[in-house]
Specification:
With 114 residues, the chain is of the alpha+beta class. It is 61% helix and 12% strand. A hairpin with a 2-residue loop joins strand 2 and strand 3. Helix 3 packs across helix 6 and helix 4 packs across helix 5. The protein is elongated, with a radius of gyration of 17 Å.
Length: 114
C-alpha cells in the first residue's frame, strides 16, 4: 500500500463513527426500532404511553407495543406505569442515554413514503 493509499484509508476510517455504527448494529436492528430510538433520543425527558408514541411516529399501536418492550428489556427505555398504563421514557443509565441521544442527533430520520 502506498503512502497516499494509507493516508486515504486513515482519512476514511476517521470519518466513520465506529461507536455509532456499533450502536446501530446492536440496537437499531430494524426500521421500527430506528424510529423509536430516534424519537426517544429527541425527547429524552418526556414520558409517553404506547398510544402517544404510535401517533407521534405514525405507526400502529400493535406494531410498536412489543418493540417498546424489547427496548425496555435492553434497558434503552425505562418502563413505568401511570394510571394503570405502561409509559416509556429514555433510560436513566447515563452511558446508554448519551448513546441514544447521540444517535438521534447524528442520524437523519428515515424519509417517510407518501
Amino acid at each position: 500500500m502506498t503512502n497516499l493509499e494509507q493516508v486515504e484509508v486513515k482519512r476514511l476510517t476517521e470519518e466513520i463513527d465506529l461507536g455509532l455504527l456499533v450502536f446501530i448494529e446492536r440496537y437499531a436492528t430494524n426500521l421500527l426500532k430506528w424510529d423509536l430510538l430516534t424519537f426517544f433520543g429527541n425527547h429524552p425527558e418526556e414520558k409517553f404511553n404506547v398510544e402517544e408514541v404510535a401517533k407521534r411516529i405514525g405507526r400502529s399501536y400493535k406494531a410498536i407495543r412489543s418493540e417498546l418492550g424489547d427496548l425496555a428489556i435492553l434497558e434503552l427505555l425505562h418502563k413505568s406505569s401511570e394510571n394503570g398504563q405502561p409509559v416509556y421514557q429514555l433510560t436513566y443509565d447515563s452511558v446508554l442515554r448519551s448513546q441514544v441521544i447521540r444517535f438521534a442527533q447524528k442520524c437523519f430520520t428515515r424519509p417517510r413514503l407518501p
